[in-house]
User: Fold these one by one.
Assistant:
Number 1:
Amino acid sequence: MRRGLLPPACGWRICLLLLALTLSTACGYHTAGHTNTLPQNLKVLAVPGFVNQSQTFRIEQSLTQAVVHELTTRTNYQIVNQASDIADATLNGTVLTTSASPLTYDSKTGRVESALVIVSMKVSLVDRDGKILFQNPSYVFREQYQVSQELSSFFEEDSPALGRLSRDFAKTLVSDLLEGF
């Protein structure tokens, strides 16, 4: 006589049931970059030059240019550079603040070795009927850069740092637009 709690056939059925339940429960995650939650009727996006309310010269141009490039390479939308009647939606951006602060110092000379650039923005995508399709009033991006210590080869690293920051911002923004975050 067997002393098990369940007959062997029941044990297999329970194992199969547990396996089926485990496989059928999904966590809700998906692979990034493979979703587009924007309305299907969008074909033309207007991306006018972003507004600059900061003290950083031409940063809005770098950010706008990076976003247009990212939209052009990752989507099939036609991109126009100003709001118009042909645009199905308009992407507006405003650079609110920029700042740079030292991160590390040379212990011998006391000079700054690396600095951190921080850019704060607000962004919205509005369709031609005025409906907000996407909005983020508080994008904050940071980029670290090294400061040259050699006076003979000194050049400002903040322009390349802002370029990297602009590209990172554009990648994140386009992903957020397409995936609805």
Number 2:
Amino acid sequence: MIEYIFSEGESVEFVVGCDFEEFKRYLKRIGLYKEEGQLDNLENFLNNKLFNLIVWRRDGEIVGHAIWHETNTEEHRKGDPRDKEDRKTLRKLLGGKQDFVELHEVWLAEEHRGKGYGKQFFEFFEEFMIKKGYDRIVFYAHHPAALAICRRRGYREGGFIHIEGVAEYVFYLHLRK
């Protein structure tokens, strides 16, 4: 667990892992994963270690989360091939077949946005990945705040791909320079 202190005594903790029932209550509160079966799929991915979870806590309450997984330019998850557009973009951006960590989802409850938590999360996540021995991060984003953070932190832009009808920008950071 890492804690960052902000002005006026505000703090947020980044915690690896979480009780899924608590996480499910948080997801329902913020209105994510509304479609039938989405939570079951997410729980299955987390239980089978296909995805990893980091929750953001403030005053003991979950206020945000990130989901990440190990992957490569050929597979989205173990045994789940990437589509042609995605493979082409990743190969171009990473320089061929490469393993990397995909920051799959980053979310912060609306009432906690604009406090610097996103910037602090990326600092935490990058350092955490280095400590775990990874050297590449790919992140797909479309939210203006996420785009701005990636650009400020020096992530390379690799264009965009379409995921479920949304144009997602593809960002890449090599952690060992």
Number 3:
Amino acid sequence: MTRGRPPRQGLGDAILVAMARGTVMSFMKNKESFCDFMIMSNSTLFFVQIRKARRLCGTREEMEREFREPVMQLRSFPSSGPIIKELWVYSRYGIWRFFRIEDAGIVEICQDGTPLKNSFIEVIRTQRAVHKKKPGSALVKVP
């Protein structure tokens, strides 16, 4: 049983991301549905479930524990070569993390579906280091 309301706020944003990857088919949400939409690419079907998170800064293992229910729902669906199951998680600030659900664990991916090379924490540190201070933000002594 899921807690809270369905993630309607993020569904619109997720559909836009999904449309960049292929044709999107949405599902009606009910008790039996295990995903929010499906992406049809050239030879692959992606079944995607989205969830809103209170915090996104955990490791893959922590995220798997936090979202145990949707991960287990996606794992219960039979998997084969052209079928990939993904969990997309977003925060109230509009930050997203994407995970591919596998039988042995979860793999963090980019929004285009490629495996993420750096962990989430390293990416945040890099983004903070790249941002410069706004001009005029420091106090300047005028002679």
Number 4:
Amino acid sequence: MKKPLFLAFIALSLSIISCSNDGNIIPEPEENFFALTVGNSWVYEHCRRENQVTAVYNSVGVIDSIKITGTEIIDGNEFYKYRIRTSGNDTNNPIYRQNRERFQYLRDSTGYLVNQLGDILFSGEDEQEFLASDGATYPVYSRRGEGTETISTLSW
């Protein structure tokens, strides 16, 4: 009599422990949307669309290697120091950055990626339009697109 009661107790305990209601889980907001961490790095290969009809892209040979190398305080705000090395632009094509190393300082300012001049470079909010460039002739507005896009990355 004790054995069936004991087995029923174990079965009931396991069913209670193993039950979960995944429908009520609220995802945590991403705290570091722009991946602002010293040591992070990215490599971007510039490509050109083959033609307007197909979605085929071909490399133009220009590579931007980016690494966050440290932090600096500018006007009381902590900025992340990006080292950007461009290579492969041997013809000095004005569409791409020239071959050289340069530094840029960026920080997260209430969901916007901004540089040390206060220019907004990117928004972390879906569909939040912002002024990306106040050009002399045409102002440029930008926003994140809808949905998710998968990209392929290479490790060097």
